[in-house]
Amino acid sequence: MRNWKTWTFTLLLFGFTSNAINSQAVRMNDTGLGLASVTLHPKDLVISPPFIPLQNGMLTFRFDDLRAEYSSYNLRVRHCTHDWWYSDLHPSEYLDGFHDVVIDEMEDSFGTKVNYTHYSIDLPKDDFVWTRSGNYVLEVFSPNAPEEILISRRFVVYEDLSVVQAEMLEPVDIALRRTHQEISFVVKEDSYDFLDPYNNLFTTVLQNARWDNAISDISPRFIKGQELDFSKVGYVFPGGNSYRYVDLKSLNFTARGIAGITEGEYSFHHLLDPSQRRTYTYHTSLPDINGAFVISNDRHEIYTGSDYSVAHFSLPMPYELHGRDIFIFGELSSGKCNPTMKMTWDSEASAYKANILLKQGYYDYLYLVKDSSAPDFEFGVTDDIEGNHFATDNLYTVFVYYADFQGYDRVIGFAQWNNNPN
Predict the structure, then answer these.
(1) pLDDT of 321-331, one tens digit each?
(2) Structural domain contains residue 333
(3) Cis peptide leading into 50, omega within 30 of 0?
(4) 174 and 219 share one domain
(5) Whether 409 contacts 135, CB under 8 Å
(6) Which pTM does this prediction carry?
(7) Coil vs helix vs strand at 289
(8) At residue 26, what are phi and psi to the nearest 5 degrees?
(9) CATH number of the CATH domain containing 170
């Protein structure tokens, strides 16, 4: 271990525990202690969600080990049902080659105060190729403890076997028209026959690639020949607001939204400008990256030359929200209200605050609110801090699954679009 002091900061963000999503059988860990800056995206498309075609689709997976020592990590992928239970398929039925691989691309950081080892891998590999479409979970584990999942991430492999025509419309419910967005779509047979679609065909809609508030399995309004109509059936989402951002690319010059930068004994510190509550403010459409983050810096190699800095978030409020918790949310929180991202109330400053260790880069985030007694799988809401607006630009994704006769949920249709691109 090159620097035991880096452990001081791993406790700020990375002491995660195992947690199942929505009481589903798939185990979804965030990271093991000391594993940070986890990204999974289509190769060379760093802000795109991990949804790829079966033919020629490639993913890039990266993370840092803040213990700054060479450890062995293995990776496996597990096929899942449309509702995220592990499927009954044996790995040999959806993988060509080995059932797991060693993550052997690793490199030490250089010139950084917080030392780490960076790991990366492109998938599939020649000896590790998925052969079926569907929902998948990527799991990282130590070869010494294969049942202990250190990192897990969802991804989807799809096939274009049907035509999906989708759009965002005003909700049918008049009371929601200024605050919500309704997704309407039509699924048409193309090169795959729909047999008993009421029982065999399933659909899921995501907003900004979020699985925590996904809406699934609403029956079509009607079936007309080879066309299934899913308009006005209930795929309605709160519009939310444009994502906030924090720019940590520089350690020397303050970007917009950064009040100051200091160099501490063990790491740098970025003091963010106080955030403003946007619940009742007029909506202004701002460019964002749909909740993602990008590792970057202004001087050195991106992935091994970027340092870690403690970002100091502050959200002034006239009063504490009793019985409710505020979370910093985005891909930086693994797409959920993570306990390590919960803000604390500072009565003297009359503000919620959080200090989060983040790698240099550009981060989108929102403030979400949950009841303190809510279960872990319950998603947070934008109503209290961010507000909801029909005009908000969001990334929507539609997946169409079919219970294939070969015994698995096949992804036969896919559509993705920004409803109001800037």
Answers:
(1) 999 999 999 99
(2) yes
(3) no
(4) yes
(5) yes
(6) 0.92
(7) coil
(8) -70, 130
(9) 2.60.40.10
